[in-house]
Structures are given as C-alpha cells and as structure tokens.
Amino acid sequence: MAHRPALLIIDMQTALLTRSRAHDLDATVAVVAGLRERADAAGVPVIALQQWGEKLPQGAPGHEFVEALTPRVEDVVIAKRSADPFIDTTLKATLDALGVTEVLVTGFATEFCVESAARASLGHGYDVVLVADGHTTMEREDTDEYISAARSIAHHNQIFGIIEYPGRSVRVLPSSEVDFSSP
Fold first, then answer.
1. Which residue of 1, 22, 48, 132 pairs with 71 in a disulfide if CB–CB is 3.0 to 4.6 A?
2. Is 112 in the active site?
3. pLDDT tens digits along 128-167
4. C-alpha–C-alpha distance, residues 35 and 177, integer Å
5. Lateral strand order in the sheet of 76-80
6. Cβ–Cβ < 8 Å for 144, 129
7. Domain boundaries, the chain
8. CATH assignment of 5-177?
9. What CA–CA distance (Å, rounded) separates 38 from 36?
10. Type and span of the H or E element at 123
11. Which of 22, 100, 113, 131 is an active site residue?
12. pLDDT, tens digit (0-9, with 9 covering 90-100), for 9-64
C-alpha cells in the first residue's frame, strides 16, 4: 500500500486549553497551524478531533477550536467522548476511506488524548509520527504527585522514540523534519 499520511489535530479547544493553562500554548498552536498549511499544500487530509461530554457539551462556549486552528470546509471534524478517538467514532472508517497509512499526531493533552490517539492508531494498523513540538498539556509544577508539563512532553517524546510495534513505524519528529511526501 502506498504511503498516505493524515494530520490529526486533537482537542485544541478553547475551554480545554484555557482551563488547564496549557503549556507553551502559543508556540504549540503556531506549530500545528504551520503543519496544517504544509499538509494542505501536500494534499494531505487534516482531521480535527473534538472532545465533548458532561463537562464540555457540544456547542457550549469553549467547545470551539482555538481561532488559528478552526477547521476549514475541507477538514474532517470528528466528535469524540473518550481519550481514545476510535471508540464510538468514525475515525477508523474515515482514515480507511482516505487510504491513510500513517497519522501525524498533534494536539492536547499529551498524557491523555494525544498518547491515547497515538497508541490506538498503532493498534488499528497505522504508522505513527508523534510531532515532538506539536503537542502540549496542562501547566503544572513538579510535585510529589505530578511532573511538570515540559517533563511530561519530553517523557512522551522519549517513550514514543523507543516504543516498538511489530509491522508499524513509530517516529518522533520535530515539525521542521515532517515530510508529508515520504515515510
């Protein structure tokens, strides 16, 4: 099967990002917006995943994407209720219909929906690129209970840099090294 990537933009919604005081938000948004422009230029599909649930009902204030990442007509928007974007959604059917073989994972929150999307994508048969500077999480200090956002992001980049799935390619790349034309 020919290499066919898709860019996943996960949960970049105003309420989630502002409530959590997302780490390095402006830089992350700029990276993801730049990737979206490059994906468009390369004819790569963009899929925006949008969390909703009791704490964030569909259509409620804050449910919308941050302005720079507002989906366009040509983007696919998929609503999800779980950290795993394949549960009770059309994501797999959409990826398969588009002939996608590899997903580039970006968005919020690193240790929740971003990690779940990357692992689930591998389990569903897709190669994965975790965009090292294209995901973020809630800002927090290092404590006995939690590591800082910067350390969590670095940790996940490191883990996905060494994780192995038989028959799958798993890479961690900075956005500057993402090449939509080759695996």
1. 48
2. no
3. 999 999 999 998 877 778 899 999 999 999 999 999 999 9
4. 11
5. 76-80, 46-51, 5-10, 102-108, 127-136, 170-173
6. no
7. 5-177
8. 3.40.50.850
9. 5
10. helix 115-123
11. 113
12. 999 999 998 877 999 999 999 999 999 999 999 999 999 999 998 888 888 888 89
